[in-house]
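Dear Dr. K.,

Following up on our conversation at the group meeting, I've run the structure prediction for Cholesterol transport system auxiliary component from Primorskyibacter sedentarius. I'm pasting the input sequence below exactly as I used it, so you can double-check it against your construct before we proceed with anything downstream. Let me know if the numbering doesn't match what you have in your notebook.
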Amino acid sequence: MTPASAIRFALFWLGLSLLAGCSALSSIESASQPLNTFELSPLPAGAVAVSRGRSQLEVAAPTATGALTSDRIVIKPNALQVQVLPEARWVDETTEHVQLLLVRSLTNSGMFGLVSAEGAGPRPDFLLLTDLQAFQVETGADQQAVVIRTNMTLLRDDDGAVVSARSFENSVPVADTTAGQVVFAFDQAMTQQMTDMLRWLDRLPGV
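The predicted C-alpha cells came back this morning:
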C-alpha cells in the first residue's frame, strides 16, 4: 500500500468512526429528551348510581401484550404494526395505569366496602381479572379513533368460581393524532368503559 493509499484508508475509517459516534450521540440525546406526561381520570363519587355494599374486592393487574406494558401511547395503523405517539407518555405503564383507574373508580362508587390492588389488602371476597386487548389509537382510511377493548372476569375468591365475565369495547373518534386530542379521547373512552363496568357489576346478584 502506497503512503497516499494508507492515508486515504485511515481517513475513511476515521470518517466512519465519527459518523457512528454522531449517530450514537444523537440516539442518546433523543432518549434523554423529556416526554410530556399524561394521566386519565377515575370516575368520581356519584358518577354512576349503584348499590352500596360491604364486600371486599381485589383488582388484579391487567394482562396485555408487550405493546401495552410500556408507558408509551400506542398507535396502530393496521393490525400488525405498532407505533407510539411522539413526545408523549402515560404517567405509569399502561397496565398499571388502568389498574389504578379501576381501583379508584370502584372505590369512589361505594359498591364495595374495600377495593384494593392485587396483594395490597386483606383476603378479598371477589377478584376482578382484566385482559387488556386494545388501548390504542387505530388509524385507517375512513377514520381514526381511540379504542379500548377488555375482557373482564369476576371470581369468587374462596373457591375461584366464575361469577360473571363480559367483554367491553369503547371507542371515541379523534380528528388528528396530536397529544391533546388523543388523550382527551382516551379519557372519554375510559370513562365510558368504567361506567359500563360499574353497571355490569351492579346487576350481579350477591356482589
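Two things stood out to me. Residues 1 and 9 are 10 Å apart (CA to CA). The domain at 39-202 is CATH 3.40.50.10610 (Rossmann fold).

Best regards,
J.T.
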